[in-house]
Amino acid sequence: MGNIVAVVGRPNVGKSTFFNRLIQRREAIVDSVSGVTRDRNYGKSDWNGRSFSLIDTGGYVKGSDDIFEAEIDKQVELAVDEADAIIFMVDVESGVTPMDEEVAVLLRKVDKPVLLAVNKVDNNKRLENAVEFYSLGLGEYFPIASTNGSGTGDLLDALIEKLPEQKAEEETELPRFAVVGRPNAGKSSFINALIGEERYIVTDVAGTTRDAMDTKYNRFGFEFNLVDTAGIRRKSKVKEDLEFYSVMRSVRAIENSDVCLLILDATRGFDGQVQNIFWLAQRNRKGIVILVNKWDLVEDKQTNTMRDYKAMIEREIEPFTDVPIIFMSVLTRQRIFKAIETAVKVFENRSTKIKTRELNDIMLPIIEQNPPPAYKGKYVKIKFCMQLPTPQPQFAFFCNLPQYVRDPYKRYIENKLRKEFDLSGVPISVYFRKK
Ligand code: GDP
Ligand code: GDP
């Protein structure tokens, strides 16, 4: 479980420049591996060993100042609801604007850490000018220049100091499910179907933060926790018509879950936003089940309809295609039980602990039959492998020259692991290490 930090502020103050600076290096690595279009407004960062998720709210509420004006209250409200700390960014070049003042009024009432970052402070003159931002009534400010990084260290030091303590991911016995997807996919309907009547609710367990809640359910013979139901209960308050809101909600729910139930509307398909949410879950190494909802609305279903639809989704989620896909209808209750059953199975797959002996007995002969190709005339000898003691499956293969094992071979090993062991729906990691 990580902390979430939201960056708010009006357009063009430099939020995305700041964001890119903080997440750059790590993101680049992930991109080359997954090949998936990533959400450019969400990323992981760390500072002095503390990691946190960073959300650039500006990326979701882009556009001109007048659009922003209409959205400003909601943007701030959502950031406040969903984040553990807020960085409020302003621009020394334009000075204090009426819109900055409006945001400041909202943020002064907030009881979460708010850090005021005065951006574009590139020279001494601007450093003097920055003083005017005291008038926002938010106290101390941090002069920074996102383009070259100056001042960001002090800002991050202060941020880390103010972030609430987080517990490490606990190995709970009950699966924690997050129901995620685009607005209107049928999430609330599905959750209502899961919850059934109130009497199925066993207990409310307060999460690590005030608004993240795990609620324990006992339904269809399975026990599980539903994550971030608080956000769903609030639904009537904020109309979730903007992608921004669903992504903000997804981030929190995904981070606190073991398995994500990604719901999509069969009539709308697997578009870029769904892909972003999928990517978020994969990125956080959570179990994933894809639920294609509203299957009742798909007309003229032929023998191949389901197979073709599945193939279409698999093309979108490559290379991580070993994910269960269930076609369901919350309306007619078709395969709702199957959906839960599958999610529980993915939870179990994610908790799999393969014995070292068994792993070696199976994998070493496979490797012997098809060893890593020689690289620069050198032969890689894999001697031994083991699963690491992490909450989700990670495997280490010990060899003489780990640096010579290339990506295609890593993928080959991953595929073999998936074939031999049931890891469906679970992102795994394969490492090669020096013996
Ligand atoms: P956003 O709309 O808040 O995400 O703002 P952007 O990150 O897109 O930045 C808007 C403009 O401000 C871009 O032209 C940036 O190059 C510029 N900018 C961002 N940070 C700085 C800075 O530290 N100094 C200066 N001089 N310009 C900056
Ligand atoms: P959310 O925004 O993802 O929570 O979506 P809702 O649960 O509010 O559902 C959006 C709309 O889709 C509502 O009108 C639901 O009645 C409808 N809906 C949900 N599931 C199904 C389904 O399986 N079939 C059909 N035909 N409609 C559905």
UniProtKB/TrEMBL annotation:
<comment type="function">
    <text>GTPase that plays an essential role in the late steps of ribosome biogenesis.</text>
</comment>
<dbReference type="GO" id="GO:0043022">
    <property type="term" value="F:ribosome binding"/>
</dbReference>
<dbReference type="Pfam" id="PF14714">
    <property type="entry name" value="KH_dom-like"/>
</dbReference>
<dbReference type="InterPro" id="IPR031166">
    <property type="entry name" value="G_ENGA"/>
</dbReference>
<keyword id="KW-0690">Ribosome biogenesis</keyword>
<feature type="domain" description="EngA-type G">
    <location>
        <begin position="3"/>
        <end position="167"/>
    </location>
</feature>
<dbReference type="InterPro" id="IPR005225">
    <property type="entry name" value="Small_GTP-bd"/>
</dbReference>
<feature type="domain" description="EngA-type G">
    <location>
        <begin position="175"/>
        <end position="351"/>
    </location>
</feature>
<feature type="binding site">
    <location>
        <begin position="293"/>
        <end position="296"/>
    </location>
    <ligand>
        <name>GTP 2</name>
    </ligand>
</feature>
<comment type="similarity">
    <text>Belongs to the TRAFAC class TrmE-Era-EngA-EngB-Septin-like GTPase superfamily. EngA (Der) GTPase family.</text>
</comment>
<feature type="binding site">
    <location>
        <begin position="56"/>
        <end position="60"/>
    </location>
    <ligand>
        <name>GTP 1</name>
    </ligand>
</feature>
<comment type="subunit">
    <text>Associates with the 50S ribosomal subunit.</text>
</comment>
<dbReference type="InterPro" id="IPR032859">
    <property type="entry name" value="KH_dom-like"/>
</dbReference>
<feature type="binding site">
    <location>
        <begin position="119"/>
        <end position="122"/>
    </location>
    <ligand>
        <name>GTP 1</name>
    </ligand>
</feature>
<dbReference type="InterPro" id="IPR006073">
    <property type="entry name" value="GTP-bd"/>
</dbReference>
<dbReference type="InterPro" id="IPR016484">
    <property type="entry name" value="GTPase_Der"/>
</dbReference>
<feature type="binding site">
    <location>
        <begin position="228"/>
        <end position="232"/>
    </location>
    <ligand>
        <name>GTP 2</name>
    </ligand>
</feature>
<feature type="binding site">
    <location>
        <begin position="181"/>
        <end position="188"/>
    </location>
    <ligand>
        <name>GTP 2</name>
    </ligand>
</feature>
<dbReference type="Pfam" id="PF01926">
    <property type="entry name" value="MMR_HSR1"/>
</dbReference>
<protein>
    <recommendedName>
        <fullName>GTPase Der</fullName>
    </recommendedName>
</protein>
<dbReference type="InterPro" id="IPR027417">
    <property type="entry name" value="P-loop_NTPase"/>
</dbReference>
<keyword id="KW-0677">Repeat</keyword>
<dbReference type="GO" id="GO:0005525">
    <property type="term" value="F:GTP binding"/>
</dbReference>
<keyword id="KW-0547">Nucleotide-binding</keyword>
<dbReference type="GO" id="GO:0042254">
    <property type="term" value="P:ribosome biogenesis"/>
</dbReference>
<feature type="binding site">
    <location>
        <begin position="9"/>
        <end position="16"/>
    </location>
    <ligand>
        <name>GTP 1</name>
    </ligand>
</feature>
<keyword id="KW-0342">GTP-binding</keyword>
<dbReference type="InterPro" id="IPR015946">
    <property type="entry name" value="KH_dom-like_a/b"/>
</dbReference>
